[in-house]
Write a structure and sequence with these properties.
By secondary structure, the protein is α+β, with helices and mostly antiparallel strands. The chain is about 30% helix and about 20% strand. The strands form 4 sheets. Strands 2-1-11-10-9-8 form a 6-stranded antiparallel beta sheet, sandwiched between helices. The longest helix is centred in the N-terminal third of the chain and has 18 residues.
């Protein structure tokens, strides 16, 4: 669902004949570059088992490449570049843009307190609208897991989310820490609707999508015949159709569906400083600072920073069965969008990284260590079928159904003990849990492990997912 979602990625060969493509825009890549993109996408889908990918490339401020590959659903075996993928948390920058527009209209101020618009929010008299958008409010995230938890099988409303999560004690004093919070964006969306006097999507349609020619829709409605279908995988088990979450669970935190080509139109508006005043684009791309002066690296609905000397504006998104990466390089007039219909692999970031190489120098990722021995023991339990459920929370136990446990044991057990098990980066706080990621190395393959656990030495696992890596 976010930039800080797992970096995953591993495949099982899909013949190029299974790849179908549609080019909707003038081709500006060279034949060699086009062939390179095709090879990268084909390899990633093949190695990971991800059914489909749809990509868009902006270079020189223009959409120069758009192509869709693979099986978008059980009935959409010929991929369409126009098909809308659920972009999830990439939607956050649109919610933030709605607030910027309303501020420009003189109807609210980002430094207003939440309590001016919505009552009964914990800390509402101290949290500002800006802190909702920069994830510095202290409101606990309602969806830190990389799977749909039990409550998500039942429809909800923004008020339902607020009642369950936004009335809890704050995780920290507003402005003192950074912690990703979908809850904060639900509150932000409620405020937009109250101030604008219309549904958030209607406001965005009138002020953003229609002017830019973007076809966007509520992801809860982008389900069924004619729409890409989400897929999941338990460890290295078979790729299975994912059951969508019930209506209402993403709202302003990630409710949009659109094609990568349409998302690229928004990226081009960012590059050209159109639609919004240049000052509002700059405000969105300015990272928030904590009370102690720490740079959070996160602006208003976007992550910002510098990569190999190139300034970027980025966000990823994870819906149930979907992953999206959207990264813009404002100074280079370039952008890359990748959407896949799976939530079990890092194919989306692997593909995006390869496409970035077409417009920018190579980038590198670092790694770090944390609680590796404990995670290794949990991994060994899953592969040997000796899982101790006392080490898991209620939600984690809900996730590990008999089918899930059987897939884990059958697919991991035959691999034996790995050559190495190592952490890939420092831990991060999220939704009251600590997120740690690991890489598992075998002679012929690599796996990723994405965990969330309760704080403390004896914290139980809220999530322990094993996925293929590339």
């Amino acid at each position: 669902m976010t930039f800080y979602r797992p970096a995953l990625c591993r495949p099982a060969l899909v013949a190029l004949s299974l790849l179908s493509a549609s080019i909707a825009h003038a081709q500006a890549l060279t034949p060699a570059e086009t062939a390179q993109v095709d090879r990268v996408v084909a390899a990633s889908l093949a190695k990971t088992g991800v059914p489909s990918a749809s990509v868009a490339i902006v270079r020189g401020g223009k959409l120069v490449f758009a192509k869709a590959y693979g099986k978008q659903s059980e009935t959409m075996t010929v991929a369409s570049v126009e098909a809308p993928y659920q972009i999830a948390s990439v939607s956050k920058q649109f919610t933030a843009a709605a607030m910027l527009l309303l501020q420009r209209d003189g109807k609210l101020g980002l430094d207003d307190k939440v309590s001016k618009y919505v009552l009964d929010i914990s800390g509402g008299d101290t949290i500002t609208l800006r802190q909702l958008l920069t994830h510095t409010s202290g409101l606990q995230d309602y969806w830190p897991q990389d799977y749909s938890f039990a409550a998500m099988a039942t429809p909800t409303t923004p008020q339902g989310i607020v009642d369950r999560w936004a009335k809890k004690p704050l995780d920290f004093a507003p402005g003192t820490q950074w912690q990703y919070s979908n809850t904060g964006y639900v509150v932000a969306g409620m405020i937009v609707e109250k101030v604008a006097g219309m549904p958030l999507l209607d406001f965005l349609q009138a002020r953003v999508f229609a002017p830019l020619g973007i076809k966007a829709m509520d992801q809860d409605l982008a389900i069924g015949p004619g729409y890409p279908q989400g897929y999941q995988r338990f460890a290295l088990g078979p790729v299975r159709v994912e059951r969508p979450a019930a209506h209402g669970w993403l709202f302003a935190a990630g409710e949009l569906s659109m094609s990568p080509s349409d998302l690229a139109k928004w990226d081009i508006a960012r590059l050209d400083r159109t639609l919004l005043p240049a000052g509002d684009w700059a405000a969105q791309e300015t990272p928030a600072k904590l009370a102690d002066g720490t740079n959070t690296g996160y602006g208003l609905g976007v992550s910002v920073g510098t990569r190999e000397g190139h300034r970027y504006v980025e966000h990823s998104g994870e819906a149930v069965g979907f992953l999206t990466e959207n990264i813009v390089f404002p100074d280079d007039k370039a952008a890359v969008v990748v959407a896949v219909n799976s939530d079990f692999s890092d194919a989306f970031t692997t593909i995006a990284g390869a496409l970035v190489k077409l417009v920018l120098p190579d980038t590198a990722d670092g790694g770090e260590a944390a609680k590796t021995a404990q995670a290794r023991r949990m991994f060994d339990m899953l592969r040997t079928g000796t899982l101790d459920r006392a080490l898991m929370t209620e939600n984690s136990n809900y996730y590990f159904t008999p089918v899930a446990l059987a897939d884990y044991q059958q697919s991991l057990g035959k691999l034996g003990a790995p050559e190495s098990f190592e952490a890939t980066r420092k831990p991060r706080l999220r939704g009251g849990f600590v997120n740690r990621n690991y890489r598992v190395i075998y002679p012929d393959r690599t796996l990723n492990v994405i965990t969330y656990s309760e704080p403390g030495d004896n914290g139980r696992y809220e999530q322990f997912l094993v996925m293929p890596a590339q």
